[in-house]
Design brief:
21 strands; 12% helix; 322 residues
Length: 322
């Protein structure tokens, strides 16, 4: 059976990728005659506590040999995440997302496709337009300093870089994420020529701050790099060396997971810009080419935003030697 729908193919979905709020999305189905009579509907639901599925009947566009074609146009007016599948309205059949992103017929619930709708006035920052981002999970990228001692007793070092990561649940069904392969900032630094040769413009680093897990999403201290990755000074060296290759660095920080630990480490003399919208604050480090984007996070209610910005600004000077 030929592909019924594929959101990656412009025949089935226009426009490709994310859409601006208020933009019309055109979706097409190609249904084999062997499926018999169908009355396909798009089933679309916005992600939200009180949002419910909305059904849009698709119009019949005509036939080609052994295939019927249907389409629908829908305007997505509100920013957010939307999920969708297709209901054939016959014999409880639906078309859901298959493993290869192609639509498959199912009599059960299945995976949906997703559409991201962004603010109508959003503009991509000029510094990242057309740029290549390379994401790095620091512990698994490259070990620049081998056989380092474990700084905390709850960490297990994997000397064999071809070993299977710990993925099995423990006796209580939990996953401790306590095995470390030793990737570090020095390993990233020594790979900069290789990354530049590949055409990388920005490195997007998964969390690097001190935390007690190999993924470091449970950040404990935003003022210090995790000791297994390196030191604050080594991070400053990495930023400086990356800039020589024309590579910017983006740090991932955690929205809503860091509690009151809201001070971000800034290691370059910089002008800190506050861009505030919906409780989120983006701090962008300027005067570094390409710029270092320190991260984004949500401030806790009651905290003084101006005092946080003042702290970050004062911290930048001493660390940069100003």
């Amino acid at each position: 059976m030929s592909c019924l729908f594929n959101s990656y193919d412009p025949y089935f979905k226009q426009p490709f990728g994310a859409v601006r709020a208020g933009q019309t999305v055109h979706l097409t189905l190609r249904i084999p005659e062997e499926l018999g009579y169908v009355d396909p509907h798009l089933v679309l639901q916005k992600e939200g506590k009180y949002d419910v599925p909305v059904h849009y009947r698709m119009k019949f566009d005509g036939q080609t040999p052994h295939q019927n074609h249907f389409s629908v146009d829908v305007v997505l007016g509100d920013p957010g995440l939307y999920f969708y599948y297709f209901d054939l309205y016959t014999d409880f059949r639906r078309i859901v997302r298959g493993a290869d992103n192609c639509g498959v017929v199912s009599w059960q619930e299945g995976e949906s496709w997703q559409i991201t709708v962004y603010e109508p006035d959003f503009q991509t920052p000029e510094c990242i337009k057309g740029k290549v981002f390379y994401q790095i999970f620091p512990d698994r990228f490259c070990e620049g300093i081998e056989n380092k001692p474990m700084p905390f007793p709850d960490r297990l070092y994997q000397a064999d870089k071809h070993a299977e990561p710990f993925w099995q649940p423990n006796e209580t069904g939990g996953h401790l994420n306590e095995d470390y392969f030793g990737g570090d900032l020095e390993g990233i630094r020594i790979k900069l020529p290789y990354l530049r040769e590949m055409g990388v413009d920005y490195l997007y680093l998964n969390p690097i701050f001190e935390a007690h897990s190999n993924h470091r999403y449970n950040t404990a201290d935003y003022l210090n790099v995790d000791p297994l990755l390196g030191t604050n000074e080594e991070f400053e060296v990495l930023c400086r060396e990356a800039a020589k290759y024309g590579i910017g660095i983006v740090l991932k920080t955690l929205r809503g997971r860091c509690g009151l630990l809201l001070q971000l480490l800034i290691i370059r003399q910089a002008v800190v810009l506050q861009i505030s919208k919906g409780g989120g604050h983006l701090f962008q480090i300027e005067h570094l080419s390409p710029p270092l984007i320190a991260g984004a996070f949500s401030l806790e209610p009651g905290l003084n935003v101006n005092s946080q910005i003042d702290f970050l600004t004062r911290l930048a000077g001493p660390l940069a030697g100003a």
